[in-house]
Amino acid sequence: MTHRFKCRCGCFQAIVLGGYTSRGIICCCSDCRAFAKYCDESILIDGGGIHLIEIPQNRFNILKGKNRVRALRFSDGGLIRWFCDCCYTPIGNTRDNSIFSMLSLINFFPETGFIEKDFRFFTSIIGRKSVNQEMKLREQDSFVNWLGKMARMLVYVISGKDRVSPFFYADGKPISEPLIVSSELLYLLKNT
Ligand SMILES: [Zn+2]
Ligand SMILES: [Zn+2]
Predict the structure, then answer these.
(1) Which of 16, 78, 130, 147 makes an SS bond possible with 3, Cβ 3.0 to 4.6 Å?
(2) Which domain holds residue 118?
(3) What is the pLDDT along the chain (192 residues), one digit of tens a residue?
């Protein structure tokens, strides 16, 4: 099954290929929450986490608006957090290249809401400081999750598909140079 990802204003559109046994994460860490505040707080769910679905980067195909994609980081070696600058719809995060790195796509599609069908399994919760009881109940065995992730990652790397990404050029450069958020702004995002 494929899912259509369309930013709020429609300038940016992509197709997400489902059917891949991905891992879901509800991340409640302060960086993910800060990213939500920077872009769009409505992606925060339940106790304040964001629901990410890990998919190979090549399963996210940009149809339109690649030039609207922007990136930011909260520290020098930190994750790259992708969004579109037309309407600040957040997309997800990756490491700083496509090698051995999945796309943690934010499971919130402005047009259709959360997409549970293809991606509801293997949800684990991290950064649980602020997680409420209801979210704890949704957690599954994290070691099993981890093993599954490693196995899937291995298949993905052996196949060479990790070198195909909509967010990086063939030489490994990101399609948009990540902006490093100032410590002042980061403080504000985390503390207000
Ligand atoms: Zn937009
Ligand atoms: Zn996080």
Answers:
(1) 16
(2) 2-191
(3) 788 999 999 999 999 987 666 677 888 889 999 999 999 988 888 768 888 888 889 889 999 999 999 999 999 889 999 999 999 999 999 998 777 778 999 988 888 888 776 665 556 666 655 445 444 444 555 677 677 777 877 877 777 666 689 999 988 899 999 999 999 999 999 998
Distance 157 CA to ligand 1 centre (A): 32
Residue 159 belongs to domain with CATH number? 2.170.150.70
Number of domains in the chain: 1
Contacts 24+ apart (CB under 8 A), 126-132: 126/25, 126/26, 126/27, 126/28, 126/29, 127/27, 127/28, 127/29, 127/30, 127/32, 127/49, 128/28, 129/28, 130/28, 130/47, 130/48, 130/49, 131/26, 131/28, 131/46, 131/47, 131/49, 132/46, 132/47
Tell me the whole-structure pTM to 2 decimals: 0.84
From the CA of 70, the nearest ligand is 1
